[in-house]
Structure formats: structure tokens, C-alpha cells
Amino acid sequence: MEDRSHKVLLALVMLFLFAVIVLQYVCPGTECQLLRLRALSPAAAADPYRAEDETPARFVPRFNFSAGDLLRRVDFNIKGDDLIVFLHIQKTGGTTFGRHLVRNIQLEQPCECRAGQKKCTCHRPGKRETWLFSRFSTGWSCGLHADWTELTNCVPSVVDSKKEVRLRPSRNFYYITILRDPVSRYLSEWRHVQRGATWKASLHVCDGRSPTTEELPSCYTGDDWSGCSLQEFMDCPYNLANNRQVRMLSDLSLVGCYNLSVMPEEQRNKVLLDSAKENLKRMAFFGLTEFQRKTQYLFEKTFNMNFISPFTQYNSTRASSVEIDEQTQQRIEALNFLDMELYDYAKDLFLQRYQYMRQKEHQEARRKRQEQRKILRAKQARLREQGENSSSTDYIGNVERWRR
Q1: Residue 15 falls inside a structural domain
Q2: Where is this region: Disordered (predicted)?
Q3: The pTM is what?
Q4: Which of 212, 278, 296, 307 is deepest in the core (most CB within 10 A)?
Q5: Residue 317 belongs to what domain range?
Q6: CA distance 362 to 259
Q7: Residue 395 placed within a domain
């Protein structure tokens, strides 16, 4: 029985070697060798993005987006005048992503980050001018955690403030941001505030002015709100943590800024949500904290810029360590009902963009393989033709010699 199994194994090995020899004979070129290496490599067998985050096994799109909405590839000219503007929403993982932008991108002229300094110098190649507008490159030049309304009005004037109007270049401003699951983000903000954070330096400028204390009351009377309980945090009706992502991504001038008397609450909420969705869709790029590797992939494909080290999916955060009951979960969701709807929309668009870009990538790879096979077949046909011509020439020559 053992001899029989050895014979079967030997036969399989001989068959494999025979197949390799035949393949080498049929396709001896480097093209086929590369194809064989790709086929045998582990990367070809598994999708490196699938197991890194919380992607559902079968993603079923809920919203209809056009091809233009899904295809995100901008012609970012880092040597020209184009500018990437990072809209940093609190507690969305923006600090980590912001560091990736200044420390982890392969560039002809990398950002210069010195020890002990919070800001890095991100100059264009051969110029003393920045290509990135963010916390870690230009600082909070438009105010602490400036929102869409502030950035779109402030950035152009700040960037070109020292130039005469007629000398200011025609720039492309590419806005980007990161979103996060609203409940996790809310809990993370509460823990941050509980430790003493206030963001009191935020300007909230809209239509040329900051809100009055009547328009934007404070939730606390002291220097900060440190030590506040989750219940106190949820009970404050003026808490800017509520629906923060929608407010920071919408055009607040559409609803009278922070003046709640301009229109009915229901109408205001609808305008804000619609504005946030439209601005998010039209942004050059947005990522999701819950999908780190896909966020990296989409940024790289959008801007044709590659990161040096892969993003890491953190499953443990300060917010995830907070244990809440179902009633509290529902309360937080109710307080952030606009953010909940925006996140569902963003997640659907994000995953559709990822699928679309991957399909495009696979189609391009398939097209290149077909071109390689076409070139290979043409090369083999030429070799056969040369061989046949050589054989025919030899035969005719031999006939001529025999006649002599």
C-alpha cells in the first residue's frame, strides 16, 4: 500500500515537472514568467483590503450614484498652484490622518518635520509655497477646527493674502475630510471634554462674524467642562457635539448661520443635511475611520500619491471602552439623527466608490494582460515564420546542391 502511494506521488511530481517544461517551451519569455509569479503570489490569492476593517460580507448599495460621483481621480499638480485642504472634524481620527499627510506620503520633496514642532513644512518641489492646508502644515490658520463655511471663505484669502489680486493664481482647491460612526464619535468627544478640552478658540465665523452668546450659549460656566457626566453632556441643548459632522460639512449661511429664528427647525435640519450630503459628494476625497485601508486606497487612487506605510485599523479606542446600555445608545442616536443619516449616506457612497475603483483597476489589469498575450502571440508567430522561412531556404539550397 505504501509503495502504491509513493508511485502515485511520484507520478504527480513527474506530471507537474512535465507541465512546467511544456509551459517553458511554449512561453519562454519574461512576460509569461511575470504572469506565473503573479498567479503564485499570496497577494493574488487574497484581497489585502477585505479583512482589515468592518466591510460587510456582501455590500448592497442603497443609493444611486452616477459614474461621475463614483470616479474620483483629480489631476493634482503639486508643482503648480493646486492646494489640498483638510477639513478636520473633531474626534474622527483626523489627527492620525493629518499626520499621514505630512509624514507618510512618498514625495519628490517630503515635508520637513522637526522634533518638538507641531507643524511641518510641506513645500512644493523647487518652491517655498505649501501644497497642503492642514493643522500639521499651516496650523489653524482659519480658526480651530474650521468648518466648511469658514474654510471655503477663508482659505483663498489666507493663501494669497500677500499677493496683489491681479497676481493671484487661479488655484484648484481640493477639499478632503474624515468621518466617523456618530455614536463612537460622540462618546469620544464626551471623554475628551471630560478631560478638560473646550475648543473655546473656535471662531464659528459665518457671514463675516462669529455668533453671539445668545445664538450660541455655553454648556458650562467655568473654564471648562471637565468631569461632566455623560448624562450632563447629553442634556445640554446647546452642545455642539450634537450633529457636529452635518453642521461642519454644510453651508451654514443657507440657514442664517447660528440664528435659529430664521426658519422652522424641521426646514433648517433638512437644508443642513442636504447641504452636507452635497458638499461631501463633491469633495475631492473623504475617508471613514472605520475603513482605514480602504481610505488609504481611495486617497492614493484619487490623488495619484502613495503612502509609505499602510494605514492601521485600530479596533480599540477610548470611545470603544465606554460601556453604554441600549437606552443610552438610542438617546445618542436621537441627539445625532442628522449625523446618523449623513453617515449612512457617506458609508454607502464610500463603499460604492471603493468597489467602482477596484473594478476599474481589475479591468485595467485585464486589458494589460490581454495586450501582453497579444504581443506574445505576435512574437511567437514571427518566430514560427522565421523558422519556416529558414527551413524553406535550407531545403531549396540542398536541392540546388544535389542538382550540381
Answers
A1: no
A2: 381-404
A3: 0.81
A4: 296
A5: 50-366
A6: 50
A7: no
